[in-house]
Write a structure and sequence with these properties.
The structure is a homodimer of 339-residue chains. Chain A has 339 residues and is of the alpha/beta class. Chain A is 46% helix and 12% strand. Chain A has 13 helices and ten strands.
């Protein structure tokens, strides 16, 4: 069994993103909150999923995708908490519908109704509880920069801002993927720059803070192969040592996991050779960042399974951990779904 | 002959950084500009350089270091253009003194008197001309984010803001290393996060803009092994293809070069296997980011020459390009210095 822990619902029918656009326009015009998102039929869901995510999973032999709303569409830097509650519920419900239609192939992960300038509090916690208790979700995406590339709200180690959210994650026994969304900063292309910088930024915030002393059971996933962290593993090992910190293994790797969304063979080889295999979870973010076929290989850039299969840095026990076992460890709520 | 293209004067005597601190305090107090930096004796310069940078170079067999003021000390987000002109002249003069004392071992690269909110104009150009014409400098460090982690001034592709600076670089026949400085944003540890994110950000700005159509002869160096770019080379190749752009080779690699400040063997192996060797320049940033010895190897993390020597991705012609030939191509003003 192969579990892909990083998929997004990027193939919703057009009325979904049109609703968000209208909601934001109305909010910008008069500050009011559009609350009635348009219906989406089961057929529309099937038409988005079957020829795309599901077909690709079957082609590649992926059994289950841990599936969340489109990341760049989370859009926390726009609107306010009230608009974003409506938007998050709508997007999470659509993910839940996918999981209901294909219960053997998709498990849900929720987006949070974060908003720029607003610490995650009751509205966020209510949606978390709804997602876990009512929708059976197994985790959440947490946006470390709901300001959309301005990076003007507090960092992940800020106790007042973030610790109440971490308490909820621990209480609900769910991990969080650290995943930024769109960028309103012209310096940062969302998917090319902001995503990768967000991962690197979170890694260093974890390394240089006491979050895991205070929450020893919390688990975070860094997507996109951990941003720049594995490529600069020696830099971070050396800086930890210079700062008098414990090793990366002790300080970070009990709580932080890396996905395999790295779209070429040398990158996967590096990831698998520097990060312990217990800390690597298979993922492709298929129908995500990169859609094309690599002319050098004749395969999709995002067919990450091929790179892991071909990697001299992996053996079969490692592959089993990366494909399945680690995911079941990090996402305890996946275990009943996977039998 | 081995040329290290990325060294900083991190071992100045204490009155140097104390001056900057006083200058900023006075500026914050009353907006006035402290203009009289304290003297530094030749003996103080020797005491900083000989047991540190120069000793390390001799141990490792590095002949020449391309040497610039301490990067985290450039400090463009503090003060204003007038304070920063004084500070840049002082720091550049100190680098020049090092080059005069050890003319066979150091070639100068200048910092610019950039300031947050101020486009680089005459004050910057005057210092550039002084550095090249009077001090014999061979290049400059350009800070893509003089706001110190706020990223609130325009991106590198903004024609009004940046193109006049690019015209100067081309006219003076000098390359620029893209190098951020300190961070006043609590999200970003300067050396661990902001440096690496700055490199990745610049790479994508180069990829997604027309800078090299407009300046076909300009040359930029991305330090720290190009941030995250080589690790995500497949992502960037794929995104370029999805965007309908030319290949990375055509779009970026005629003008952009990567240094080897990557502090472990797998990172260097990856860099040398994905980036064409014509685009890689040897560097260590010694007495820079990471000072310690790797307990796994018994050698300094930043002894990057060892990794290149040991890399299965390199052969001797490649090493000669990386150690010397590429540097002479990118820095034409190094050629007479190197005989």
């Amino acid at each position: 069994m192969i579990i892909d822990i990083h998929g997004h619902y990027t193939t919703t029918p057009p009325q979904v993103s049109e609703f968000r656009q209208r909601q934001i326009e109305q909010f910008q015009r008069d500050g009011s909150v559009l609350r009635e998102p348009p219906p989406v039929s089961d057929d529309e869901i099937r038409a988005g999923i079957e020829p795309n995510q599901l077909a690709r999973m079957k082609e590649r032999g992926v059994d289950l995708t841990v599936f969340s709303p489109k990341a760049v569409g989370m859009d926390h830097h726009q609107g306010n908490e009230a608009t974003n509650v409506v938007w998050a519920r709508y997007c999470n419900d659509l993910v839940h519908r996918v999981c209901q239609l294909y219960p053997r192939h998709f498990a849900g992960v929720g987006m949070l109704p974060q908003a720029a300038g607003v610490p995650p509090r009751q509205a966020v916690f209510d949606e978390m509880r709804r997602c876990v208790d009512e929708l059976g979700f197994v985790g959440f995406n947490v946006n470390p920069d709901p300001t959309g590339g301005r990076w003007s709200d507090p960092p992940l180690w800020d106790k007042d801002w973030w610790y109440p959210l971490y308490e909820q994650l621990v209480a609900l026994q769910v991990p969080a993927m650290i995943h930024v969304s769109g960028s309103c900063n012209p310096h940062f292309n969302a998917v090319a720059t902001h995503y990768i910088n967000g991962d690197t930024t979170a890694f260093v915030q974890f390394l240089t803070s006491d979050i895991f002393r205070d929450f020893p059971d919390i688990k975070f996933i860094l997507p996109h192969g951990g941003g720049a962290a594995p490529y600069h593993w020696g830099r971070y090992r050396g800086m930890a040592q210079d700062m008098g910190l414990p090793t990366l293994e002790e300080k970070v790797l009990k709580n932080v996991f890396f996905d395999t969304c790295v779209y070429h063979q040398p990158g996967i080889d590096l990831l698998l050779s520097v990060v312990p295999s217990q800390n690597v979870l298979f993922a492709s973010e298929t129908f995500g960042a990169v859609n094309g076929i690599d002319p050098r290989t004749g395969h999709h850039f995002d067919h990450t399974l091929r790179y892991i299969e071909a990697s001299p840095a992996a053996d079969e026990p490692m592959r089993q951990r990366v494909y399945r076992e680690n995911a079941l460890g990090v996402y305890p709520r996946l275990r009943p779904i996977c039998g």
